[in-house]
Fold this protein.
Amino acid sequence: MDLFYSRRIGRPPSRSARVPTGGRLLDNPPATDIVGAAKLTGRTQRGTTLGLISAITAREFAAVADSNDVRTQNLVEPRAVYNVFRLKQDVLKNSSIGLIATHATRTGEFPATVGGVDWNLNFVNNMYNLSGQVAASRAGQSTRATGMGTEIRFSKFGGKHISGSVGYEGYSRQFRANDLGFVRRSHFHSLNGWINLRGNDPWRFTRRRNVNLNINTRWNTRGAKLNQNVNFNGNVQYTNYWFTGGGFGRSFSTQDDRETGGNGLVRIPDSYFGWFFVESDFRRRASGEAFSDFGQERDGKNFGTGIFARFQLASNIQVQFGPNYNITRNVTRSVANVVDSANGNANRAVFGKLDTDNFSLVTRASITFTKDLSFQLYNQLFFAYGDYRSFKALTSPTTFGPLMPELYTGNPDFNSRSMNVNAVLRWEYRPGSKLFLVWSQARSGSGTPGDGSFGRNLRGIFDAPGENVLLLKVNYWWNI
C-alpha cells in the first residue's frame, strides 16, 4: 500500500469536460497547478523520523464551444488542499514501526482521510523479518464508506542457501486510498510465496547461482478467482561476471471481474509464459543486457524483446539507452457495453480480437562536473497502436455469441505517441542544501487508429504538439 503517492498533487484533472451536442473541446489542462506547498522532514538522535507535507492546488477549467461557437469554461478540478503526516520510530535492532495519515479536501466535496500503522521487524541477527501494514480509509461522495486494507509478510532472508517469504494482502470493497495514495485495486484477497535456493560460493565456471519457485493466488471478496499462477526461474553469474537467466510459468484458468465494466464475469483461459536474459560484465566501460519474454496473452499470443546498453565515456560521463518492443496477437478483449433494445434493453458486453504493437526507447545521460555540481538528461519515446476486429457478444462468463452489426458501430482502434524529456542541473551550494534547475518537454498526440507502420509512428512522435516547463527549485537544510 502506497498510502502517499506524491504525483497525486498536481495530477491531471479528475473530471471530464461537458461538451454540448455538436460542440467541441477547445482546451483541457493536462495537469493541476500547484499554488503552494511546504515539506518538513527530520530525524532525532533517538531514532524518530518525522515528515509533514501540505499543498494547495488551484481550480482548473476546460474551454468548450457549442455548435454556435459560443465558448464557455467547465470546472474540471476544484481547489484542493492535501496534507500528509508521517512518523517512524526505530525499535529493537534494525527495526521500525510507523504511523501515516493523509487528508485530501476539495471544494464542494467530502474529504478523503486515510490512516495506517506499519512495521518492519528484524530478528535473529536479521535472518528473519516480519513486515506489514494495516490501514483504514473514510472516503466517497454519494456514499461515505469506511474500508480496511491489510498487508503482512514473513520472510527469511539470512542463511547460506535457503530464503523465502509468504504473505497475505487484502482490501475490503470500500477501501479507497487513491486521493493521495496509489493502490491498484481493492475488493480482493491474495496469498503469495516464494522460495529461493542459492549458491554464493564459486563452483567450476560459476560465481553464484539462484533457483526460485513463486506461487500466487488472488480472489475477490465474493469468491471469484482472479489470479492463480506458478513460475520457476533461475540465474547464473559466471566467473567472467556475465549473467544468464530465465524462467517459465503457467497461469491457471481464472475470472476477470472488471473486464466487462460491471456487466458480469468473463473467464480467462489457461496460459503459459516465459522469459530469458543475457547480461554482460557491468564493470566494463561498455556493457549491456538483452532480454525477451514470450507466451500466451489470454487466448492470444505475446512476444517482447529489448536491449539495455551502458557506456562509461569517462570517469564522470555515463550514457545509457534501452529500446523495447512488444506485440500481442489475437487477444480477446472488451470493447464496450451496449443496450440491446430488441431483447428487453439487455446490456451486452462487446468483445473483439485485438492486435497491439508498442515501442519505447529510454535514453539517460549524466555528467558529474564536481562533487557538488552535476547534470542529468532523460528522454523517453513511446508509441502504441491497437487494431480490433471480429466483434462478438459475451453470452455467459465462458461463451461468446454473434453480435448484430447495428448494436455496435464504433471504432475502438487506437494510435498514441509521446515523448518526454527532462534535463536537471543540480548544485549543492552548501552541505545538505541544493538548487535544481529543471527543463522538461512533453509531446503527445495520435496517428491513424490501427496504423501499425513502425516508421510513420516513430516519425509522428516528433510531429506531436509539445509543452515546455522551466522550473527552479531551492531547498535549505538546517538542524533544529
Q: What stands out?
A: The first helix runs from residue 454 to 463. The two ends are 32 Å apart (CA to CA). The chain has a mean pLDDT of 93. The first strand starts at residue 24 and ends at 27.
